[in-house]
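Box 3.1 — From sequence to structure: Trk system potassium uptake protein
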Amino acid sequence: MHIRTIIRIVGILVALFSVTMLAPALVAYIYRDGAGLDFFSAFVICLCLGLALWFPNRTHNKELRSKEGFLIVVLFWTVLGSVGAIPFILSAELDMTVAAAFFESFSGLTTTGATVISGLDTLPKAILFYRQMLQWLGGMGIIVLAVAILPILGIGGMQLFRAEIPGPVKDNKVAPRIAETAKTLWYIYLVLTICCALLLWLAGMNMFDAICHSFSTIAIGGFSNYDASVGHFNSPTINLIIVIFLLIAGVNFSLHFAAFASRGLKLSVYRFDPEVKVFIGIQVVLTLICMSALLTHQVYSSPWQALDQSLFQSVSIATTAGFSTTGFAEWPLFLPILLMIASFIGGCAGSTGGGIKVVRIMLLNLQGMRELKRLIHPRAVYRIKLGNKALADKVVEAVWGFFAAYALVFVICMLALLATGMEELTAFTAVVATLNNLGPGLGDVAANFGTTSDVAKWIMILAMLFGRLEIFTLLVLFTPAFWRS
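Predicted structure (token representation):
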């Protein structure tokens, strides 16, 4: 294990991250909100920490193996989430405990969107911008951005890329070289962000809100500048724009690359992808169920209002964004529970969404159907196909292993929260919200997570990391075999 090489790389990445602190400092200067010194101080602290990690190890330059790539990914998210809490700790405006500051930082970076802050409407613009920026940086993964420059530093990037990109199949690169892959993905990510911001601005948001909400929309994060979230704007047009971009961000980004790889837009790439079909189908079914139930219970008198709210909340929760336009916790109880269960599915593999991922659910379903057929025809040989491609049994086995690990982590986290004295519904939905990187829960965490104990916050931070790193990336570090040379 090349420990000093790992420390060197983490130091470089922390130093690079420190530069992002200057963006909210600039916002503070523009709006004269008094928070600039906090972010400049955080920049200096992060830069010094990064240099302290890099300088003693600057000559150590070894090629990474896969296991070291996993370790760097986990260390980076842990360290970055920790240093990301510095501005929250320094802010006199927020007056947060250490646990609350870490919770907010990790929630932003992992694109969970759960918050411990109330009174967002009156916070300094710099703090609001910083929260949204954390989500935007975490959306595709800062490490995917970083591997674009790692070859310049003498470090191969494929190990980091495979550890970071979500989904069951990670060996297919969309470009011949990993650096080109990372750059291309981020170009697409940036273009989508700009388009979303412009449309939100044209729909009635001011430019600051449009930029901030585009950050959290493309990242499928869910942070907002207002306690009422997107409901603050009370605009069906804004709701529809956010829904469209959540669906786009919930699709595998390698499909976006393929769609724009040649001249013109190849929509057939999306039309013939089985995962996209199921993903869109899930959103349609959830919307129809919610709309029918809301009209039946006369929650809304107008069918158009019911459609607007049903579409927005279904897509927002099912893609694990967690935006809200209404107190959906006050809907007939089975609807919030249904939507939170849908968040276990999440977005497509290779998207910025959380959850188990649509393709894994598809494979679990196909495997279940195969076992039923084997009961009827024990000697028959059935191959599992995704589209027209037959999958190796090791892929299906990996999905079952992932599902088992996901369920185990969920149960352990929920039991741990119950042990802190948390009420049952609150504990269940709190784990759903954090492990699936969703954001809002029910019960005592319907509005925010500020009332939870510090111990509960640390447990939920761990759940966020498990969800963001797709269980195995973090879980593998707890196996003795990983640490053997």
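Summary of the box: Residues 145-156 have pLDDT under 50 and may be disordered.
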